[in-house]
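R.M. (postdoc): so does anyone remember the format we settled on? I'll just put the structure tokens first.
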């Protein structure tokens, strides 16, 4: 019995946590302290905080990976959820390892907007598109993150002659089409953008650089 208990403890999954970007939410964990035997498999359950019964996640029942997609299971974005994982190896099952409480609306990271540089003379026009969630409207299109948050766009310009790392904020607001004027012809510029959520005081990463010469 003791040996079994030791094995149970040594295969118990560690560091169970939710990670989420634009409401694409996955549960992650690490193998137990014994490392991982070849035959180790994992079982995932989830529930809303306050509920007594756990739900099995069928796609993540007896899997060998360390990640489970729970995007559809945590779609009530204001609700707090828990996930938990147990391991089995050599016919022995570990206890459950519990995640911290996870509230998608509060904790998902929001991605940067997509930036399109339209045209240029002495100015350029940028088109910004908010990131999209995995959740769909009745017609099938994915719902943009602006439906869930009051988002602001921040646009920065980089003058490659001056300094690669020096980003100047040239716009902050909700407009999706932005004109940047008074640029010097023949100079190489790059633009990057972020989304910013004032209510949570949280910014996205930078979008990928769009570079151009007027």
């Amino acid at each position: 019995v003791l040996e079994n208990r030791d094995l149970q403890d040594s295969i118990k999954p560690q560091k169970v946590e939710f990670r989420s970007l634009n409401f694409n939410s996955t549960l992650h964990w690490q193998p137990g302290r014994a490392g991982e035997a070849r035959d180790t498999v994992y079982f995932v359950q989830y529930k809303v905080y306050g509920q007594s019964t756990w739900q099995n996640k069928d796609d993540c029942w007896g899997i060998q990976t360390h990640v489970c997609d729970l995007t559809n299971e945590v779609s009530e974005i204001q609700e707090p959820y828990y996930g938990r994982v147990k391991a089995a190896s050599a016919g022995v099952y570990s206890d459950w390892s519990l995640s911290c409480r996870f509230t998608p609306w509060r904790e998902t990271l929001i991605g940067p907007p997509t930036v399109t540089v339209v045209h240029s003379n002495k100015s350029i026009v940028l088109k910004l598109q908010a990131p999209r969630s995995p959740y769909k409207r009745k017609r099938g299109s994915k719902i943009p993150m602006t439906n869930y948050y009051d988002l602001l766009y921040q646009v920065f310009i980089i003058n490659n002659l001056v300094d690669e790392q020096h980003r100047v904020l040239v716009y902050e607001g909700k407009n999706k089409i932005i004109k940047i004027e008074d640029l010097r012809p023949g100079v190489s510029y790059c633009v990057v953008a972020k989304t910013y959520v004032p209510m949570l005081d949280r910014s996205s990463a930078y979008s990928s650089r769009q570079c151009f010469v007027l």
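R.M.: ...and that's the designed sequence above, right after the tokens. Also worth knowing: Residues 2-11 form the longest helix (10 residues). Residues 48 and 81 are 4 Å apart (CA to CA).
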